[in-house]
Structures are given as structure tokens and as C-alpha cells.
Amino acid sequence: MTAWEAQPTLSSEEIDDLLIQFRKTDAAGVKAGEIGWIPTYNLNAAAAEGWRWKAAKASELISVDLDGERLSSQMVFEHCERMAKTYSRKNNASPTTSTQ
Q: Is residue 79 a contact partner of residue 50, using CB atoms and an 8 Å limit?
């Protein structure tokens, strides 16, 4: 959902941080961190935040020419911002994931 391996990349540690940040109470009402909690996450909120982090990283990029094509840092930044907005809008219908 964050295209974490695409530039600007997110590390696996950053992905873990996003999941920790957006843990949810599971379907049985057990809160994150409590005994018996089934890992459940607000994936749309996590993805939106991940794209915001990528946008922050993109703001540090410089524009380059790659095989005759121009890669604009502004284009990358704007794409990340659009993706963050897309997932923010989906947040009301937030999918969750669990290990069961």
C-alpha cells in the first residue's frame, strides 16, 4: 500500500513503526498490547502516513535525468501527497488485518 521499496523508500523498521502506530482493538474488543490481542491494524491510516513520510523524503531529492527522461523531485513529491490523500479518504472504510 505504500510501495515501500520504490523511491523514496521506507525501511522495514519504518513499516514496523507504522503498524505499531496504527494498531487497533481487535474484533473481540481486546486492545493492542493486552493479552489475547489478535494483531489488527488500520491499514488505510498507516498507508496514508507512510506516503506522508515518503513525501517528506521526496522533498530532499534533486531532479535528475535518467536515460533521457527527466525525473522531477516535484513530481515524486506530488505523487506521494496524492497517495496520502487517497488513503486518508479511504480511512473511513479502513481495512484491518490480523494474523488469524
A: no
The H or E element spanning position 95 is: none
Could you tell me the pTM of the whole model? 0.80
Cα-to-chain-centroid distance, residue 65: 27
- Tell which residue, 45, 36, 32, 60, has the closest CA to residue 2: 45
**pLDDT tens digits along 40-74:** 999 999 999 999 999 999 877 766 555 666 667 78
CA gap 78, 86 in Å, rounded: 12
Strand locations in the chain (E): 64-66, 69-71
Whole-angstrom Cα distance, residue 22 to residue 77?
A: 23
